[in-house]
Write a structure and sequence with these properties.
By secondary structure, the protein is mainly α. It has a single domain, classed as Farnesyl Diphosphate Synthase (Orthogonal Bundle). It is built from 13 helices and no strands. The longest helix has 25 residues. The chain is globular, with a radius of gyration of 19 Å. The model has no long low-confidence stretch (mean pLDDT 90).
C-alpha cells in the first residue's frame, strides 16, 4: 500500500489494529488467520466502522448528531486529501484508494449510522436499507480487499458477501435485543414488539438468518485462499452463536445476552483450522 512503510502510516495502522483487538476478540482472531498482506487493510476497515458505531451507540452524554456529522466530514476530507491526522481515518483512506472501494459503500454505511440517531419504525423496507448500510457494505469493502482488483471475482462473490454481513448483523440484533431496547430504545426487527416478543417471532427470525448463512457459505468456499480461513472462522463462530440462541426461549433472550464462551471459541478455532487444512469446508 502506498506509504504503508513510513513511520506515520505504520503507527496509524497499529492504532486500527489496537481498536480491533480491544473491541472484538472474535474478529481479531479471524483477521490473524488472513494472509499477512490482508490483515492491516481489514484492521483499517474495522477501525473505521467501529468508531462510527461507537458514536451512535455509546456517547450518550454528547451530541451524537454533531459528532457523526463531523466524523462524516472528516472522512470525506481524508479521502480528498489522502491524509488525515486522525489515525483511523488515515489508514481507512489509504485502503479506500488502494483497493478502489466505492464512495457509495461509505455513504450507505454512514447513512445507516445516522439512522440510529432517530426513532425509526422498522418496516421491511427500512430494515433492509439499514442492514445493507450497516453490515452488507462492510462485507463488500472487505471483499474489495480480498479480490484485490479482480472485478470478475468481486462481482461473483458480492451476493454471498452481502448475505454473510446480513447474517452477522441479524444475529447481533437477536443477541442484543435486550440492550438495544433498554439502552437505546431500538427494536430492529419489523413488526416485533419487545414487550410481546414471542417464541414464534424468534423462530421466524432464526429461519431468515439461516437462509442468509446458507447463501453466504456458497461464497465462503470460493473466496481467495488468503481470506478463506479467517472468514470461515467468523462464519463458524456466528453459526454456533445462532445455535445457542435457538436453544433459548424468547423470554430468556429478552432477559440476558447469549454468548459463545472462550473455551468453546478455542475448540471452534481448532476444528475450523483442521477443516480448512484438509480442504473440507
Amino acid at each position: 500500500m502506498e506509504n504503508v512503510n513510513d513511520l506515520y502510516s505504520q503507527s496509524c495502522f497499529e492504532c486500527s489494529k489496537l481498536i480491533t483487538n480491544k473491541y472484538s476478540t472474535s474478529f481479531s482472531l479471524g483477521i490473524k488467520l488472513f494472509a499477512k498482506h490482508l490483515r492491516m487493510p481489514i484492521y483499517a476497515i474495522y477501525g473505521f466502522v467501529r468508531f462510527a458505531d461507537e458514536i451512535v451507540d455509546t456517547f450518550h452524554d454528547q451530541d451524537k448528531a454533531v459528532l457523526l456529522a463531523r466524523f462524516r466530514q472528516d472522512t470525506y476530507q481524508a479521502l480528498e486529501d489522502k491524509i488525515s491526522l486522525n489515525p483511523i481515518l488515515h489508514t481507512f483512506q489509504q485502503v479506500v484508494h488502494r483497493y478502489n472501494i466505492e464512495t457509495e459503500l461509505i455513504d450507505a454505511f454512514l447513512d445507516s449510522m445516522a439512522m440510529d440517531l432517530d426513532d425509526y419504525t422498522y418496516t421491511p423496507a427500512v430494515y433492509k436499507k439499514y442492514i445493507y448500510g450497516s453490515a452488507e457494505v462492510v462485507g463488500l469493502m472487505c471483499l474489495r480487499v480480498f479480490c484485490d482488483g479482480d472485478e470478475l471475482e468481486y462481482q461473483s462473490l458480492k451476493a454471498p458477501a452481502c448475505s454473510l454481513g446480513a447474517a452477522f448483523q441479524k444475529v447481533n440484533f437477536l443477541r442484543d435485543i435486550k440492550s438495544d431496547y433498554e439502552e437505546r430504545g431500538r427494536v430492529y426487527f419489523p413488526g416485533v414488539d419487545y414487550h410481546t416478543f414471542s417464541d414464534q417471532d424468534k423462530v421466524d427470525i432464526e429461519a431468515d438468518i439461516k437462509q442468509d448463512f446458507d447463501d453466504a457459505y456458497e461464497g465462503i468456499v470460493r473466496l481467495p485462499k488468503g481470506a478463506r480461513q479467517g472468514v470461515y472462522l467468523a462464519y463458524v463462530y456466528y453459526t454456533n452463536l445462532l445455535k445457542k440462541i435457538k436453544h433459548e426461549s424468547a423470554a430468556k433472550l429478552s432477559d440476558q445476552r447469549i454468548r459463545v464462551s472462550d473455551p468453546r471459541k478455542f475448540v471452534l478455532l481448532c476444528n475450523s483450522t483442521i477443516r480448512h487444512r484438509l480442504n473440507i469446508l
